[in-house]
């Protein structure tokens, strides 16, 4: 049985028919389509302009740092960075690692130790806590998680003085542990860990693992942790960046220059450059080397990082 067809309305008497009618309809709709295309074009131009300005705002300081690190002190004071002469990048690097008996290398190793090891341990703690908040039921869970969210809103600089007083009570001031221990606990990482657990670890998979005889620790390390790979990378990158750029806490806790991270060491040299201009080239070269680990981490892990940022966006 064929479907009923809708009767067509006959054209009005005297109205154009055939190809002439189609041309007339297209001509009538042309002004409307042109008017609608104009706002879309202006919107694209505005978005591209904003993106271009953001890129320039981000890349111009890096470009200046790259050019300035290749110039000697005279070219820096003349602001002559675009000339082909006065090229002394190798000399600046040699002076950087020779300054004050090569202490910059010690600062660099300290930063790698604080940031890489600290970010790795902090990531494991944060993701495990977020997993527990997501998969287990216990008394006061949501209230405790509310405290975690409140901790996210507290600036780290506010906690520097209380942390110093507590470290002073136990004798940890001016030691490696006074900077390393506080960075292991990150409320924002716990929040992200719960989000990633909700988005990547289905409850049915854990139930199947328990039916097969796996305990809670085995289910977490053998099943859940592998599924949380993108989340681990994302939390690690956030924490690596925060620890590497950490400045105020080491400044409060440390007085021994051999324990300084790169950020604090370069600050001390930059303050000394006001009196001794020889520090200016080494500060600039040291700043260039200081950003390389973060760039390398984001380039090597960006694929996992992008997928981790979309956790929980689609159910």
What is the alpha-carbon Rg in Å?
30 Å
Structural class: mainly alpha
Unreliable residue stretches: 308-315
| CA-based shape | globular
Q: What is the end-to-end distance?
A: 42 Å
The count of β-strands is: 0
Domain ABC transmembrane type-1: 108-301
Transmembrane segments: 45-69, 111-133, 145-165, 171-192, 223-244, 279-301
Biased composition (Pro residues): 7-16
Pfam families: BPD_transp_1
Kindly list the characteristics that best describe this protein.
membrane; mainly alpha; 315 residues; cell membrane; disordered C terminus; Carbohydrate ABC transporter permease
Brief rundown of the structure:
The protein is 73% helix and 0% strand.
């Amino acid at each position: 049985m064929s479907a009923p067809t809708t009767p067509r309305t006959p054209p009005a008497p005297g109205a154009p028919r055939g190809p002439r009618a189609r041309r007339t309809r297209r001509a009538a709709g042309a002004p409307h389509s042109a008017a609608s295309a104009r706002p879309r074009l202006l919107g694209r131009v505005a978005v591209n302009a904003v993106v271009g300005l953001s890129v320039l705002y981000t890349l111009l300081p890096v470009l200046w740092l790259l050019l300035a690190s290749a110039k000697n002190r005279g070219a820096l004071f003349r602001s002559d960075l675009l000339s082909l002469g006065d090229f002394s990048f190798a000399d600046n690097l040699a002076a950087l690692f020779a300054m004050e008996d090569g202490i910059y290398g010690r600062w660099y190793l300290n930063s790698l130790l604080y940031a890489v090891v600290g970010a790795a341990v902090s990531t494991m703690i944060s993701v495990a806590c977020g997993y527990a908040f997501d998969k287990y039921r216990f008394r006061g869970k949501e209230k405790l998680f509310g405290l975690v969210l409140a901790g996210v809103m507290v600036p780290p600089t506010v906690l520097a003085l209380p942390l110093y007083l507590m470290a002073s009570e136990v004798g940890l001031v001016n030691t490696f542990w006074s900077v390393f221990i506080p960075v292991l606990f990150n409320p924002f990482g716990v929040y992200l860990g719960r989000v990633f657990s909700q988005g990547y670890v289905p409850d049915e998979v854990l139930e199947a693992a328990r039916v097969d005889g796996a305990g809670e620790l085995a289910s977490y390390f053998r099943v859940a942790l592998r599924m949380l790979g993108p989340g681990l990378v994302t939390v690690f990158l956030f924490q690596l960046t925060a620890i590497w750029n950490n400045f105020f806490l080491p400044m409060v806790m440390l007085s021994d220059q051999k324990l300084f991270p790169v950020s604090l060491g370069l600050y001390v040299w930059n303050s000394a450059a006001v009196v001794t201009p020889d520090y200016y080239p080494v500060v600039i070269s040291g700043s260039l080397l200081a950003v390389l680990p973060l760039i390398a981490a984001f380039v090597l892990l960006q694929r996992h990082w992008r997928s981790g940022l979309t956790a929980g966006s689609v159910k």
